[in-house]
Design brief:
Oligomer: single chain
Number of helices: 6
Strand content: 15-25%
Distance between the termini: 38 Å
Radius of gyration: 17 Å
Number of strands: 4
Shape: globular
Helix content: 40-55%
């Protein structure tokens, strides 16, 4: 994974980060697995930080992942990344696999996960409008 992503960064000096595709696989949760297969959603864009390789200076420029966000830290970070006009590329190959099971962290707090994403979207909209972030 890292070798392919590093080759892409070295080949194009204008790239700031390289992502890859991600494939989900299930242990248990047969109904969910069947629904994803039926809808052809087993493979997706790799937005989780495990699917990314970024140049070190990017973190110095825009900061690290917001650890106060339990579910939306990668989405929030990429929002800042894109708002700064930074350039990424997704390799068209699956290099990350994510195991889905009943104890996944994302399943543990459904309502707070949605609230967090809504808060993150509002914060992003406020930033685009030049408003200070709400606490």
């Amino acid at each position: 994974k890292l070798t392919l992503q590093l080759e892409a960064l070295r080949a194009d000096a204008t790239l700031d980060a390289v992502l890859c595709r991600m494939r989900l696989f299930w242990e248990g949760l047969e109904a969910e697995a069947a629904a994803y297969r039926r809808d052809n959603r087993e493979e997706s864009h790799g937005l989780p930080n495990s699917a990314m390789l970024a140049r070190r200076w990017i973190f110095d420029a825009i900061g690290m992942f917001d650890t106060s966000l339990k579910h939306a830290s990668a989405v929030a970070w990429f929002g800042v990344f894109e708002s700064r006009g930074l350039k990424s590329k997704e390799l068209p190959v699956v290099l990350v696999e994510r195991r889905m099971h009943a104890q996944n962290f994302s399943r543990q707090s459904g309502a707070s996960r949605h609230d967090e994403f809504l808060h993150m979207v509002k914060r992003s909209m406020d930033a685009k409008r030049g408003r200070p972030p709400a606490s």
